């Protein structure tokens, strides 16, 4: 039996990496999925190939997938994603606010544009799409689940991430406050905090033998995570199995955060 049979989901940043893992797992658990993606982020993969691949994978599971291109930093894109879910599936039950960027850069000489773009995508975009989906969920009157992708980086510092870590802490805080604001409407809001997850976006880290050996030693479970590991936790939080869970943040890191050795 699937956890989310007949549910309608939106996943932002859903064509690659963790987002792809979430999109496919939600479909595997019974959701039809609107996948938000941005061509500029997929160019090194072959422009539209990434979204075509994940749409085909979802179709093979017997579920429907609708692709919506656009930069989530633009509030109009959030409205388009919700409209696509309503027009194609009749509504929205689940939102995975996952889109994010992390252009590593030193702090002292960071270009203003790099900082502003990171905040615009990671934090502003999460706000826009969460607000748009929540308004639709409220009007439906049947509750819903919003799960944002924060990061272990919300809890620790990073010399090359002074623009990124505050956005991930902000996403976590957004879900805490939204949980209070939306609880009366039966809308649950939680975040996941992935640790070291092997994707094509961070391949320089996990494919470097020295970094890989160091992190494998630091992670109590002895391996990098996969996008599927995160997708399963998102599906759980979206499901009735988490019916009394809201305002929470779940680390998906194999124990990395608690291992201070």
From TrEMBL:
Taxonomy, superkingdom: Bacteria
Keyword hit for rRNA-binding: no
Family: Belongs to the short-chain dehydrogenases/reductases (SDR) family.
Protein's recorded name: 3-ketoacyl-ACP reductase
Database matches in InterPro entries: NAD(P)-bd_dom_sf (IPR036291), SDR_fam (IPR002347)
Keywords, comma-separated and alphabetical: Oxidoreductase
Keyword Oxidoreductase: yes
Gene label: fabG_4
Organism: Devosia nitrariae
